[in-house]
Amino acid sequence: MTDAKKPMAEANRISAMLNTVLGAERFPVKVDELALEYSHQCFAGSPIDKVQGEDLDGFDGLLKANKTRSKWLILYNSATPSEGRKRFTIAHEFGHYILHRHKQDLFECGNGDIETGDNNGRNIETEADLFASTLLMPLDDFRRQVDGQPISFDLMGYCADRYGVSLTAAALRWTEIAPKRAVLVASRDDHMLWAKSNMAALKSGAYFATRRNAIELPMDALAHSHNIYGMGDITGRAQSWFSREPSSMPITEMTRAAGQYDYTLTLLLMPDAEWQRPQHDDEEAEEDTFDRFVRNGRYPVR
Ligand SMILES: [Zn+2]
User: Fold this and answer.
1) Longest Cα pair distance anywhere in the chain, in angstroms?
2) What is the domain extent for residue 20?
3) Mapping DSSP to helix (H, G, I), strand (E, B) and coil, where does residue 196 land?
4) Average pLDDT, the chain
5) Distance from Cα 265 to the centre of ligand 1, integer Å
6) Which of 5, 78, 138, 195 allows an S-S link to 208, with CB 3.0 to 4.6 Å?
7) Cα(277) to centroid of ligand 1, in Å?
8) What does the pLDDT average to over 20-47?
9) Which residues line ion ligand 1, judged by CB < 5 Å?
10) What strand order describes the sheet that includes 181-188?
11) Could you read off the pLDDT of 197-248 as tens digits, one per residue?
12) 43 assigned to some structural domain
């Protein structure tokens, strides 16, 4: 098994066990109890002995062994106001226990980067996040909640409630499985904090390298402070976000305050990259995708 698949496989194995014991309507996952019980049953010689909140200065969460490695402790930052963040942090530390405890005695995680996966490419942090999101929001159940429904932040908010996670974690999960190109952008003060593209968007070059560069939002972005239209849901031209997109390419943009209103989430949706140009000789006669959107009553603001 490759390293990339292991976090998902381990989380899915635990989910299958929970489905058997508790049935399908078992959400949100009681991850603190799960970490204690599962580790005691499966690894009785070195279980997780305690999960507790503490005022952790500069960390979101922590996993550490005692001197003889006969038991482990999970701490999460009790100062975090969001229950969803706490649950995700515990699941993340549980992930380190399942996947990485043979490598280290101490894992100090954060600050603020758990759940967004924005962790400077450190492999074990990405793996622990993947384990956590797979465990808390199993794909089969997640698909049952969202399939066939128009995407909106209300729908993602419903998922966040169901799984007891933050809106951000649910939106990231949805972005991963989005049927078309999707990019989730978090911003504050008109600049991107981080951005995640799904595979289809990534392959078409629609992504932002937020780790290396300070990237300002486009002036006409809904989340930009210059934009008088404020929050909502609009369709515009993809080019204003991604200069390499053809001018006919539409983009649907929706925004919502998140992270206890500390930042704004913008979800960008685009059709497949292939759906760009008519394959006919009489190209002029074809109405472009953008015009079709407008004609259907989805007016762009620009
Ligand atoms: Zn970690």
Assistant:
1) 76
2) 6-139
3) strand
4) 86
5) 23
6) 195
7) 44
8) 97
9) 109, 125, 128
10) 191-197, 181-188, 263-270, 250-258, 233-237
11) 999 999 999 999 988 888 999 998 999 988 766 666 788 999 999 999 999 9
12) yes
> Would 156 be classed as within a structural domain?
no
CA 106 to centroid of ligand 1, rounded, Å? 10
Does residue 94 lie in a domain region?
Answer: yes
Q: How many domains does the chain have?
A: 2
- According to DSSP, the residues that pair with 62 across neighbouring strands are 75, 108
| Residue 124 resides in a domain | yes
CATH number at residue 257: 3.30.450
| Closest C-alpha among 301, 257, 251 to residue 275 | 251
pTM comes to 0.85
pLDDT tens track for 152-161: 999 999 999 9
For residue 87, how far is its CA from the centre of ligand 1 (angstroms)?
Answer: 14
